[in-house]
Write a structure and sequence with these properties.
heterodimer; A: 266 residues; mainly alpha; 12 helices; B: 323 residues; alpha/beta; Rossmann fold; Alpha-Beta Plaits; 6-stranded mixed beta sheet; 4-stranded antiparallel beta sheet; 14 strands; 36% helix
Chain lengths: 266, 323
């Protein structure tokens, strides 16, 4: 007899769980991470607070006449920016898992092969929800009024999830390709920063030079911001919504198969 | 026949670009045995193991693992095996218990059953006290134990251990060895890779020696030693500076390659009989070389490896990058 007999012998195997059940387990892991990595929570909470307050009070007067007026334009914009940047956590987490060999263990288990990615998405949705709620609350406290009301805000958040889902693929692919989490972050931000800043999130494109305005007007981030603004403040039609969804749809169509291929190829 | 084999592989090949990481390896691992794959860095050990664990697709050859075909039923293979990689494949942010619960749930244990399974494993691997600590605060030995426990959520037919003691201190290494022996006594077939000859000698019932993607020898530790021959003469010189002169002299005398140890004037050579060994040592002394110590003995696995490959094991640089 030895100490391992009791845990090795006569163990009945549970029934093989469904793919959905596998995915939910990875979602549970994403939630545990919130508890065990408070630094991440700090970033997640402080970054949107800082951006909202700084831009509103430092630039608001200069850009829109007064902080109150700027807030009406800026709150939907900062929501889009936050959702785009939030995707970095999934990519960094993926890169960490791969470099630690954790994915080898997952891949040698009899589970649905895409369930670890489904878990990343659960984490993403939670992050978007937390950061979004914080920004919206601060906005409301400072005087932001979503003219389209509750329904408008809910549909804007659904749009934000779609945007986050689409943009998330960029960091997931980077996470699969790059072994060091920090490089995933810098590579992703190098790509995202020009898109986010050369958009209509912070500044009215009418004040920009012509060549830049031409870019800003077709920038997918601009289209997303226009739609989210329209949904929250009123005035968004089917065209705006569809234009905003083009980039997430294209990213998903291209990057999802690429993700699967990169993952299975390893 | 197949019912008695945990693993049966024929002509496995894996290429990375122009490099044949595994170049046609046959392997038969009987059930219930500790089987070691021994070789230097870059020999293809990890690649071979990753193919058998369905993590890499072979470019050629066939294999059955616990009776399931690697090509046609990789899902069944995954259900019958567990793999512990070279680096602790754990979530460092989570606690030891959460790591095991995560895997227990992926295997299909629900709620309280997953928790109970995790706690049973923590107890068996003497980690109960650390159950609620994050893995990043574990010592190397504790990580290894948790890592192996994580491979035993459901009792696997074959447990793959890729270099289970690399990077551990001697005490932790001993405890991992004890653990591996205990697991084998409980009936788990274990296939492990190692670059430590002593580890293979200590643990494994059979050893396959791999070099440059090919199997160059296989057998029990005793068989491998017999294959190389007995009657090894070990000479320890008083002056390290004499080593080249002494080695050349012994080579002329005994017409076998002399193995020179890097740390201070030690030479090893096949001498055959005690008589030839004694005359060779006498010749050294007659030539004015001061011999501090000498002995006759059977070869260590180190010497077996040297004799099979003609190279020094420990000094072999990595031939290729691990995938």
């Amino acid at each position: 007899m030895n100490q391992y007999n009791s845990v090795l012998l006569g163990i009945t195997r549970p029934r093989k769980p469904s793919g959905l059940s596998n995915a939910l387990v990875f979602g549970w892991r994403a939630i545990l991470k919130f508890r065990y990595v408070p630094e991440q929570m700090f970033d997640l909470v402080m970054t949107p607070i800082m951006f909202t307050l700084l831009f509103t009070f430092v630039f608001g007067g200069a850009l829109a006449g007064s902080p109150a007026e700027y807030l009406q334009v800026f709150v939907p914009g900062i929501l889009v920016q936050t959702v785009c940047f939030n995707a970095v956590y999934s990519g960094m987490g993926l890169s960490t898992d791969l470099s630690k060999g954790l994915f080898d263990r997952f891949r040698s288990l009899p589970i649905w092969s895409l369930s670890p990615f489904a878990g990343l998405m659960v984490g993403d949705v939670l992050r978007h929800l937390i950061a979004g709620a914080i920004i919206l609350s601060i906005g409301l406290m400072l005087g932001y009024r979503p003219e389209a009301g509750f329904v408008g805000v809910v549909s804007a958040f659904l749009m934000l999830f779609a945007i986050g889902f689409g943009m998330g693929w960029i960091f997931i692919v980077l996470g699969l390709l790059i072994r060091t989490p920090m490089t995933v972050m810098t590579a992703g931000f190098t790509f995202l920063f020009p898109l986010v800043f050369a958009s209509n999130i912070m500044v009215d494109p009418a004040t920009m030079p012509g060549w830049l305005r031409a870019f800003v007007e077709v920038n997918p981030v601009t289209l997303m911001t226009t739609a989210v603004r329209g949904l929250m403040n009123g005035g968004a039609g089917a065209t705006e919504v569809l234009m905003a969804l083009i980039a997430p749809a294209v990213l998903t169509a291209v990057m999802a198969p690429l993700t699967l291929w990169l993952y299975l190829r390893r | 026949m197949n019912d008695l084999l945990a693993i049966s592989a024929r002509g496995l090949i894996k290429r990375f670009g122009d490099v044949h990481a595994v170049n046609g390896i046959d392997l038969d691992v009987p059930r219930g045995m500790i089987f070691a794959i021994l070789g230097p860095n870059g020999a293809g050990k990890t690649t071979l193991m990753r193919m058998l664990a369905t993590l890499l697709r072979p470019d050629g050859g066939t294999a059955q693992v616990m009776g399931h075909d690697l090509h046609t039923a990789p899902g069944d293979v995954r259900g019958a095996i567990a793999m512990t990689g070279q680096f602790a494949s754990l979530d460092e942010d989570l606690t030891g218990r959460d790591n095991l619960m995560l895997l227990a749930r992926l295997w299909g244990f629900k709620g309280a059953a997953a928790r109970a399974r995790a706690d049973d494993l923590l107890a068996a691997f003497e980690l109960s006290d650390a159950a609620t600590r994050q893995v990043k605060d574990y010592s190397g030995g504790m990580r290894r134990r948790l890592d192996i426990a994580a491979s035993l959520i459901v009792t696997p037919g074959v447990l793959f251990l890729d270099e289970p003691t690399t990077g551990l201190d001697p005490t932790a290494r001993q405890s991992v060895w004890t653990m591996i022996r205990g697991l084998a006594q409980s009936g788990v077939t274990i296939l492990l890779t190692t670059q430590y000859l002593e580890e293979a000698d200590q643990l494994a019932a059979r050893i396959a020696v791999i070099d440059k993607g090919k199997k160059i020898a296989e057998g029990t530790s005793r068989e491998l030693k017999a294959q190389v021959g007995s009657g090894f003469l070990h000479v320890h010189l008083a002056e390290g500076a004499d080593i080249e002169r002494a080695a050349r002299l012994l080579e002329t005398r005994l017409s076998h390659t002399v193995r020179r140890s890097t740390e201070g004037g030690q030479l090893t050579v096949v001498a055959g009989t005690a008589h030839t060994a004694a005359t060779a040592v006498a010749a050294l002394i007659a030539d004015g070389i001061e011999v501090a110590d000498f002995s006759m003995g059977s070869p260590s696995l180190d010497e077996v490896f040297f004799s099979l490959t003609g190279r020094e094991h420990a000094e072999e640089p990595a031939q290729e990058q691990k995938p």
